[in-house]
Amino acid sequence: MMCYPAIDALVKKVDTKYTLVTLAALRARELTDGSPALLDDKGKKTVTVALEEIYHDKISYYENKK
């Protein structure tokens, strides 16, 4: 079974795999708590929706360097 979007494509959207996991987890929590999805989410799990939003540049992050 293929994973969409592919992990290789997702890692190119962020600086590290750790950032990808953290960003996806935070967004999935927002979706679980009732935040509206930015893409079609019918029948999809929240983590899948979060990863698709990252892939399609619907959500982003910034690095807070002190």
Automatic annotation (TrEMBL):
**GO BP, one example?**
DNA-templated transcription
The GO terms describing molecular function are: DNA binding; DNA-directed RNA polymerase activity
Supply the source organism for this entry.
Dialister invisus DSM 15470
Pfam families per record: RNA_pol_Rpb6 (PF01192)
What's any one GO cellular component for it? DNA-directed RNA polymerase complex
Which Gene3D superfamilies does this entry report, sorted A to Z?
Answer: 3.90.940.10
Top-rank taxon: Bacteria
Protein name in UniProt: DNA-directed RNA polymerase subunit omega
Its biological purpose: Promotes RNA polymerase assembly. Latches the N- and C-terminal regions of the beta' subunit thereby facilitating its interaction with the beta and alpha subunits.
Q: Which SMART domains match?
A: RNA_pol_Rpb6
For this UniProt record, give its keywords in alphabetical order, as a comma-separated list.
DNA-directed RNA polymerase, Nucleotidyltransferase, Transcription, Transferase
Q: Which family does it belong to?
A: Belongs to the RNA polymerase subunit omega family.
Q: How does it assemble?
A: The RNAP catalytic core consists of 2 alpha, 1 beta, 1 beta' and 1 omega subunit. When a sigma factor is associated with the core the holoenzyme is formed, which can initiate transcription.
Lineage here is:
Bacteria, Bacillati, Bacillota, Negativicutes, Veillonellales
Q: What is its EC number?
A: 2.7.7.6
